[in-house]
Amino acid sequence: MSRCLLLVVVLLGATPAWAGSATSQSIWNMGHALGQAKSQVPNGATVTGTNCSEIYVADDPRWTCTVTWK
């Protein structure tokens, strides 16, 4: 049990706390999905990338966008 806890603590400490990503979906348009994802970026963070894709759910388009930051 203590080895598992130690492993979790080490892994969490090895990942940079200042990097992250947020994903959002919209039924309206890509700009809305991207805006929603960007609104989750912490103050002072720099956006390093965006990725959007369109998927269809029951023949209706849905946009999914992911924003990464550091």
Notes on the protein architecture:
31% of the residues lie in helices and 40% in strands. With 70 residues, it is of the alpha+beta class. Strand 2 (47-57) and strand 3 (60-69) form a beta hairpin. The chain is elongated and about 40 Å long. The protein contains two helices and three strands.
Strand arrangement within the widest β-sheet reads 1-3-2
**Gyration radius, in Å:** 16 Å
Quote the distance from N terminus to C terminus. 33 Å
The low-confidence runs, each spanning 5 or more residues with pLDDT under 50, are: 1-16
Shape: elongated
The chain-level mean pLDDT equals 83
Instruction: Find the structural class using helix and strand composition.
Output: alpha+beta
Number of helices: 2
Instruction: Report the portion of residues in β strands.
Output: 35-45%
| Helix residue percentage | 25-40%
- In total, the number of strands is 3
Biggest sheet overview: 3 strands, antiparallel
Q: Sketch the topology as an H/E string, one letter per element.
A: HEHEE
Summarize the structure.
This protein is an alpha+beta fold and 70 residues long. It has helices at residues 2-14, 30-38, and strands at residues 20-26, 47-57, 60-69.
Topology:
Blueprint lengths: L1 H13 L5 E7 L3 H9 L8 E11 L2 E10 L1
Antiparallel strand pairs: 1-3, 2-3
